[in-house]
Amino acid sequence: MRGLRYFFYQLRRNPLSIIGITIILLFIFIAILAPVIAPPPEGHTRTYQIPRSGYSPTPTPPSEEHPFGTTEGQYDILYGVIWGTRSAFKVGLTVIGTVLVIGITLGSIAGYFGGLVDEVIMRITDIFMAFPMLILAMAIAISNIKFPLFTFLVGPELDNVVLALAIVSWPAYTRLIRGDILAVREEDYIEATRGIGSSHLRIITRHILPNSIYPTLVMASLDIGAVVLTAAALSFLGLGAPEGYADWGQLISFSRNWIVGPPGNTMAYWYTVTIPGLFILFFVLGWNLLGDAFRDILDPRLGKR
Amino acid sequence: MELRVYIVRRVLLLIPVLFGVTLLIFGLLQTFSPVERAALYVRDVRQFGDIDAVIERYGLDEPVWVQYVTWMNEIFHGNFGWSRVVASPVTEAFINFLPATLELAIFATPLVVFGGIFLGSKAAAHKDKAIDHATRLGAIIGWSLPTFWLGLVLLMIFYGFFTGLLPPGRLSTNVSVLVHSNEFTRYTNINYIDAILNGNMRVFLDSIRHIILPVLTLTVVQLAFVMRLMRSSMLESLGKGYILTARAKGLDENTVVNKHARRNALIPVLTVSGYVFAGLVNGVVITETIFNYKGIGWWAWQSAINLDIPSVLAFAMFNGILFVLTNLVVDLLYARIDPRVRLGASAQ
Fold it and tell me: Tell me, what's the ipTM?
């Protein structure tokens, strides 16, 4: 209990973590209030599809009707970034949730039982970790794999991205959790529990996990920023959500042909790239600031100095 | 354990991983139908008329394990399939695109490594001073920057605002014509090196002008990563007892920081250099896409959006193998530098 209070004390003391928390709260706020901030026009049923006013390829600058302007193809940028916040949370939370479930299950089995099972699971993680993340994610994104659970959770537009990111991220978490479990497996109190005849499942879920994985859980949840960043990169490359879906990476890919304006007014289309980019930057920055503060507090080597 | 034994053990461990890498790629390939997979070996649209013959020839409707053997056999003979987007065999495409990417890597890699180490140790040596706060903030922002966005913003400023100052692409059109003419000998296909060898200043300057922004884009994120790690590693090493001893002996601060602390702090940085490599590869795809810089990353992107399956999978497999080998080199260096690794391995 003292540890927890000390933890929050440290967190409050660190101005960067306060900024991080504020940014994240702001984004949660935007995501919840999306229908209020950017209400879908009447008769617009697929809310995640950005409404478009016409088909003209030239972006239009911010105006009363479109406060952030429109992209090529006349997609409203404000609507895109606001509902894109929801997409970002959907992808981030689903991916992190999935990899934690896989990581905890496989990591516990590998760490607790050791031996051949451990060896096999670790070699499999080796294989997946043998690829640069984005490259493997690209290969998975173009493959014909479908996972109905993801389609159910995030819809048919984002399931591919979520699947690709989950497949590339689970090995790292499995390894981390396995390491945590190895660290407490040989403790006396575990031996004692074994001595009174507890089942393996009970030992793992009641005694080992509660004593070992909290730091990992905290760190993992802060990886949402990194996951969203990779998802945006996939979308930018054109391997993410279908055209017109509210998604930050895609909004930036719309701006690719409009980086340089006509001669004499070369910055004419600045809003198409700048605004969605700032949303991604601040979202990721918020999680990273908080993550950095947590890491400093949790790192036993830097200690309570 | 002797270093030699460790090396043998480590190399042997490589075999199952490499086998697994091919299995994973093959598994992804199997998610496509036989007709789609036949496209792997189709070199001409006309062949699609007789797609059954291709399926037959490469045994694409045989049991999975037979297909794996056939596929591996082709790969061992250097046949990774046909790259539709550039209309050449995958291996050839790869070799043609590699020099452009090396052009960027030659500058980006040392910048990331030495820049990160330098800035990180500077920050740690001046902990909680202005330089520390500045580099730390820079690192967090750099680490949060979407690479693709950074590249576009740089283009907006240096190509748009300062009209045409630092353009995208690899060479300007007229210079490109010169490079492909008879007057210019292409020794390495790395433009600025060839320019030096030809003694051609114009090509050299044009090439440099084109690589500044891509190199910058490629560097920032990884530099932030190395810097952050170096800082914390250096802080840890500065808190050690032997540093206190060195200072107590009256050694000057420079020797303490640069020799005693930094050398030991480098070890953790070395262990993650494999990840830095992977990060650069990821960055290459995005950077080359933004700057329309025709290297292997650009090719991988073109292949991915055109559903050129063989190219994407070959690219992934190649990078997987390269990454595995990089990690091998890193581990061996690590064992060479830090004897505890070898001893630890023997204790198991």
Answer: 0.86
